[in-house]
Amino acid sequence: MATGYLWHELFGWHDTGTNTGLFGSNPAAGLQPLQHFENAETKTRMNSLVGASGLLEHLVPLAPRPATDEELQRVHRAAHVQRIREESALPKGGDAGDGLSPFGHGGFEIAALAAGGAIVAAEAVMSGQVTNAYALIRPPGHHATPETGMGFCIFSNLAVAARHLQATGQASRIAVVDWDVHHGNGTQATFWEDPEVLTISVHQDNVFPPDSGALDEQGAGAAAGTAINVPLPAGSGVGAYLDVFTRVVVPALDAFGPEIVLVASGFDASAADPLARQMMTANGYRQLTELLMDAANRLCDGRLMMTHEGGYSPAYVPFCGLAVLEALSGHQTGIEDPFDPIFSGFAGQELQPHQAEVIDAAAALAQQLA
Ligand code: 6DK
Ligand code: ZN
Predict the structure, then answer these.
(1) What is residue 249's DSSP assignment?
(2) Which ligand is nearest to the CA of 158?
(3) What is the rounded CA–CA span in Å between residue 259 and residue 296?
(4) Residue 21, pLDDT score
(5) By C-alpha distance, which of 201, 304, 203 is closest to 258?
(6) Using CA atoms in the order 45, 144, 128, 295, what is the torsion angle rounded to 10 degrees?
(7) For residues 249 and 158, what is the distance between their CA atoms, to the nearest angstrom?
(8) For the domain that residue 222 is a member of, what is the CATH number?
(9) Confidence (pLDDT) at 30
(10) Cα(169) to centroid of ligand 2, in Å?
(11) 142: Cβ below 6 Å to ligand 1?
């Protein structure tokens, strides 16, 4: 039993800019500029904590390689890949597609390295080199659709890895669990008509993309029922998340029977996040990881691979990531979450009736898979 860990310095160099006019940076109005929310710091600090904690010595280092055009185009239109390549060659770079998602000169190479990192981590799990793996990659991927980037995402990293496993005969039945606080619309769109890929997104109701990720989005054609959405109300805490994983995610995985579980791991449902209003804690993410590991052990020899997505608190993301990596590797560092006494004590961490109503409806969808 070994855990793979993938990071590359270039992921810290993906440049989302300052003075972008986004998210309250408005120099024209005389406001002090801010970094874009999706800046390197949350991820570089998580990587630093993994090193400083000593956990790195208990992980198997994996090195990314760039995804090829052929690999990217298993998910994305050639025109999207080509546009990113061309804008990336410009002195000031470009935007992934929605004006919220700038990238700097050379951004194509970093985005291709992130998608290739997801491929490398997935292959390490399928080959048995490691039991599970965490790809700390950047830019994120789960909003990128076949046609375009959006929501800070350029290429759909996890989807590219899933398609790669299918195309190379390494796996055919794949389950995706997305716990980023935003809807995993890009992953869902990629597999909308593929009955071999189950996508489950647990997100805060109607945050981003706008009007996306409702309960009634369930997949089409032969894949009807293989997309599950759990749009939790704002204010949901650890109790709601544990209930979702116990009553929706794990039963759906059991019914579907995947050969590998892929997780889109954003830490923006944490109590410290500036872009959403949920109350997850590092220990909460640890428990979700343990539930997924139990299911993966039962269903597919423990095969589990996580790609990093969002999470915008540089203070807290590292502790959430460390807790997940401790669970994946079975090795405890003894480093305590300094925020746990505050966040765990918030009233409303327990499951609330209005949250249970949404989870009941999603649990009924998971039942229909069986
Ligand atoms: N909302 C992500 O964390 C990215 O999922 C989240 C992107 C949030 C953007 C917030 C925002 C708008 C904008 C315009 C109109 C309505 C709402 F992909 C990840 F990084 F993982 O600007
Ligand atoms: Zn997010």
Answers:
(1) I
(2) 1
(3) 9
(4) 67
(5) 304
(6) 90
(7) 18
(8) 3.40.800.20
(9) 81
(10) 31
(11) yes
Q: Is 170 helix (H, G, I), strand (E, B) or coil?
A: coil
Nearest CA to ligand 1 atom 3: 310
152 lines ligand 1 (CB under 6 A): yes
Which residue matches tokens 């000031």?
Answer: 92
Catalytic residue among 14, 36, 80, 143: 143
Residue 178 in contact with ligand 1 by CB distance below 6 A: no
Is-contact 135 121, C-beta < 8 A? Answer: yes
Which residue lies with its CA nearest to atom 16 of ligand 1? 210
Q: Is the CB of 309 under 6 A from ligand 1?
A: yes
Residue 287 tokens read as 């428990």
| Cβ atoms of residues 120 and 63 within 8 Å | yes
Distance CA 109, CA 95 (A): 14
As for the ipTM of the complex, it is: 0.94
What is the spatial distance between Cα 50 and Cα 42, in angstroms, rounded to a whole number?
A: 12
Per-residue pLDDT of the chain (370 residues; tens, 9 = 90+): 899 999 999 999 999 998 776 776 777 778 888 899 999 999 999 999 999 999 999 999 999 999 999 999 999 999 999 999 999 999 999 999 999 999 999 999 999 999 999 999 999 999 999 999 999 999 999 999 999 999 999 999 999 999 999 999 999 999 999 999 999 999 999 999 999 999 999 999 999 999 999 999 999 999 999 999 999 999 999 999 999 999 999 999 999 999 999 999 999 999 999 999 999 999 999 999 999 999 999 999 999 999 999 999 999 999 999 999 999 999 999 999 999 999 999 999 999 999 999 999 999 999 999 7
- What is the domain extent for residue 92? 3-369
pLDDT number for residue 107: 98
Residue with tokens 């059991």: 254
Tokens 């998210």, residue located: 23
State the first-to-last Cα distance of the chain, in angstroms, to the nearest integer: 30
Tokens 């706008």 correspond to what residue?
210
The whole-angstrom separation of Cα 132 and Cα 83 is 34
Specify the residue with its C-alpha closest to ligand 1, atom 6: 151
Domain total of the chain:
1
Q: Which residue has the tokens 């997940």?
A: 324
CA 257 to CA 61: how far, in whole Å? 29
Cα 61 versus chain centre, distance: 20
